[in-house]
Amino acid sequence: MRATLRAPKTRFLFILALLCGPVHSIAASNDLGTSWLKIPSSARAAAMGGAIGAVADDVTALEYNPAGLAGIRDHQITFMHSFWAQDLSVDQLAYGQPLTKEWGGAVAVDYVNFGSVDKVNIVGGLPQSAGSYSPMGLNVSTGVGGKVAGSLLVGGAAKFLFQDIQTTSSATVAVDLGLFYWIPKSGLSFSWVLNNLGGTLD
Question: Is the pLDDT of residue 104 over 50?
Answer without folding.
Answer: yes
